[in-house]
Design goal:
Length: 350
């Protein structure tokens, strides 16, 4: 006969043993787990404090290094400011320096270049500002030029051919027409029908105060800032040194007038008579300030004719670039190229 009470007691005893075992086991496991977690937290806190200490030391070291660099720059700047005024003295003696720049260029940058030339022994030719109208894409402008020079036609090619002859003539052969350096009397002479109003043959009927440059000025296509400089009609000759200042925003004027003119000057044998300087372009509605900087001189230095006939300088707003401009001008007719990206900041071919 089965004893029900015995089985109930046995079942209760089994469950009681299970409960006691679970309780004891969980207590032991919880104790080990908590100990491990506490150890990990303590270690993490120590690592964090060590990292904070290292970071603080690194920041202090960085600040000290930056302060040292700033002090060195300030000291170098003071030295450069002391030396800079004397760099130009005694240079460019016996030459006339004419700055040529597009009307839209940074006037402050051009003024800084002009001021540097004032400090030299060169005779100052002032600044010749070029209008965008010299691109000759305006028919009215071409007609004005054709009328002023008595050209047979006012097509773009006809006007460009005339300017390719007349402007270099005014710059390097002023004695041939309309220059005060000539010994011609102002008498009435009927020019040959094929002549350009006397400019191409040196007819005496051309007033001594009238050159291709003064005509372009009267047409509003160039502006001469001649304060303290040689008068526009007196500019020109073999001692003339051009400082052609340009920027990336003047690409059209460069291609269609300036560089075309420089090609002619080189072809006529006037290599080594000038330097091309690139400055950052001003901000416009379509571009940020300095956009495209470097593209102008990159094109010049890759051009077989221009790179062999004209020196180039960039970064003239820096001490090294400022000095390079003076050295380049002083060493003309030797053609050299200065680039601020050159690790040695030296003069050499690109």
């Amino acid at each position: 006969m089965i004893n029900l009470r015995y089985h109930i007691v046995s079942i209760v005893a089994v469950f009681l043993a299970l409960a006691i075992g679970l309780a004891l086991g969980s207590t032991f496991v919880d104790s080990v787990l908590v100990s491990n977690l506490e150890f990990q937290v303590d270690q993490l806190e120590e690592d964090t404090l060590a990292a904070i200490a290292e970071r603080t030391e690194a920041v202090e070291a960085r600040d000290e290094a930056l302060a040292s660099i700033d002090a060195a720059r300030a000291e170098r700047g003071e030295v450069e400011d002391l030396v800079r005024p004397y760099l130009a003295q005694g240079r460019l003696s016996g030459t006339t320096a004419l700055v040529v720049a597009p009307e839209g260029a940074d006037t402050d940058a051009v003024a800084a270049i002009r001021a540097r030339l004032v400090a030299t022994d060169a005779e100052l030719g002032g600044v010749l500002w070029l209008s965008d109208g010299l691109r000759l894409d305006d028919a009215a402008v071409r007609r004005q030029i054709a009328d002023a020079f008595s050209l047979a036609g006012d097509s773009r090619d006809a006007v460009r051919r005339a300017l390719r002859f007349l402007v270099p003539q005014a710059l390097y052969r002023p004695d041939e027409a309309g220059s005060s350096t000539g010994e011609r009397a102002d008498v009435e002479v009927v020019p040959d029908a094929a002549a350009l109003d006397g400019f191409s043959r040196g007819f005496a009927s051309v007033p001594t105060t009238r050159t291709a440059l003064t005509v372009l000025r009267d047409l509003g296509l160039v502006t001469h800032d001649g304060t303290g400089a040689v008068a526009l009609h007196r500019l020109g000759g073999e001692t003339l040194r051009l400082v052609v200042v340009t920027d990336a925003a003047s690409a059209g004027l460069n291609t269609e007038f300036v560089f075309d003119l420089l090609d002619v000057i080189a072809a006529e044998g006037h290599e080594g008579t000038g330097v091309i300087v690139e400055i950052p372009a001003l901000a416009t509605d379509d571009s940020a300030a300095g956009a495209g900087y470097g593209s102008v001189l990159a094109g010049v230095r890759s051009d077989e004719v221009l790179s062999s006939a004209f020196s180039t300088v960039d970064a003239v707003d820096t001490f090294s670039g400022d000095l390079a401009l003076l050295v380049v001008l002083e060493n003309l007719p030797e053609v050299v190229h200065f680039s601020a990206t050159d690790p040695s900041h030296g003069l050499g071919t690109p």
